[in-house]
Amino acid sequence: MTDHIVAEVSEIEDGERILVELKGREVGVFYLDGEYYAFANWCAHQGGPWCEGTLTGTFEGEFNRETLETRLNWVKEGKILNCPWHGWEYDIKTGTCLSRRSVKLPSYPVRVEDGKIIVTL
Amino acid sequence: MANERNLSLKKETIIDTDVHLQVKPDEIAKWVDEPFKSIMTKGHIGNPLPDSGWDRSMAGKIEKRQITGPEDIHEKLCEEFHIDHPIINSFGKLGKASMSRLAVALMKGYNDLVLQKYLDDYPHFYGLITVAMQDPEAAAEEIYRMADEKQYIGVFIDNTGPNPPLGDPRYDVVYRAAEDKGLPVSYHAYDSGFIVDFPRQNAGVESFFAVHVLTHPYAHFLTMTSLFEHGVPEKFPDLKFIFLEGGVTWLPYMMYRLNKVHSIRRFDAPMLTKTPEEYIKDQFYISTQPVGEPNNQEDMRKIMEVIGFDRMMFSSDYPHFDFDHPEGLEKFLRVNIPAKDRKKVLSGNAKEVYGI
């Protein structure tokens, strides 16, 4: 495991990302709500460059069995990363695929030291 | 006539999950009140539940078979086929009744008829509660009215005709009633309803061959897709769904196609929290008839292994022209799969799902 300085904190605005290559692997580094996240740029579906996808919200369903009311709520705006190839949805905070809960994309530890963003890989 | 060739069937417990009756308009008329009694017998429009006109007689090539009374079921299925428990379903054609008040009256009349004429005197018979999805509230009430009758062990829905398709939230009241009473829901398509759901195709094809090939998979594709689109198995996690008379081989295709599209368009079906395959392997079942007929029987074994022997339940569909005699499937299972799996398909799964 090696520490890699990937950027200065000033280089990634909130809600933005950078793509870097570490040890021959493409890695996406995201800054969202004051936290950093780093993932392999590889979708579990067909290997698409998911770190290059859009960040959007998504629908979640809610059902009240007593009233039989079904509600579809648009949630997590800006926190769902969609693979650009087929739109597989992932929760950016956990890397978990929304349609296949057992699928979680590989993530790497990220920390900030002296204004530098460091990914360990 | 008991058949010496069927000796191995005698030793098996066999539950037939798809047994049909022929109930003519003048018979059902005796079980409904006015004005529906007159509508069924004296209307100027002929039979208010007309057939679509296709000739299914096989042009005189095979005998005409009908079940018009419980003694027919006992004699043909229980004695000749060695069926231990026939499950009577099907008020066919109900799904396409245009007049919801008539549909509701026929639903109640039919359920009373089956109970009193077929179940009361034959304790080894079981039945499904037919519901008219034209009026979901009335259908739910009917489930509560009939559910405590011990021989009624499930709910029956004709899935050619209902519009919108059967996952629509307007039907949730029916699914809640079924779940409340611990009754699985069965879907069964009817060739006579093909004209309703697929009128252009019905007008365009040339023979009953095409109508019959397409009716059942089309209906099941639509129903299953709608259930997932609206998240019905997620809304009612204790409810079991049974698809009758589609054979078995369509299920892997739909399961994997639903998985694929769900993973891409999950936001369109956001009630789901699992893959369609996970729901199917937990809450969905299929009846075997008409078992597909690959040129190489080995292929069927492979497909059945993919589906899983926990998901399939024997059905004969007797007396229809493409019925499966239990001897064919029993023999196939005896030769090709372990005994414990054979017993699941012939009776074990049905016992568990229907609580027999």
Short key terms for the protein model shown above:
heterodimer, A: mainly beta, Rieske Iron-sulfur Protein, four-stranded antiparallel β-sheet, 11 strands, B: 356 residues, alpha/beta, TIM Barrel, 8 strands
Biggest beta sheet summary of chain B: 8 strands, parallel
The structure class of chain B reads alpha/beta
Write down the secondary-structure element order of chain B.
Answer: HEHHHEHEHEHEHHHHEHHEHEHH
| String of helices and strands of chain A | EEEEEEEEEEE
Structural domain tally of chain B = 1
The quaternary state of the protein chains shown equals heterodimer
**Greatest contact between two chains:** A-B, 19 and 21 residues
Give the number of DSSP strands of chain B.
8
Q: Helix/strand-derived class of chain A?
A: mainly beta
* Overall number of structural domains of chain A: 1
Rg of chain B, Å, rounded? 19 Å
Which topology of chain A does CATH recognise? Answer: Rieske Iron-sulfur Protein
Helix proportion of chain A: under 10%
Number of strands of chain A: 11
The percent of residues in helical segments of chain B reads 40-55%
Secondary structure blueprint with pairings:
The complex is a heterodimer of chains A (121) and B (356).
Chain A: E1 3-8, E2 16-22, E3 25-32, E4 35-40, E5 55-64, E6 69-82, E7 89-91, E8 96-97, E9 107-108, E10 110-113, E11 116-120
Antiparallel strand pairs in A: 1-11, 2-3, 3-4, 4-9, 5-6, 6-7, 7-8, 10-11
Chain B: H1 7-11, E1 15-19, H2 25-28, H3 36-42, H4 70-80, E2 85-88, H5 100-119, E3 126-130, H6 136-146, E4 152-158, H7 172-180, E5 185-188, H8 194-197, H9 199-204, H10 208-229, H11 232-235, E6 241-243, H12 250-264, H13 276-283, E7 284-287, H14 297-307, E8 312-313, H15 326-336, H16 339-354
Helix pairs in contact in B: 5-6, 6-7
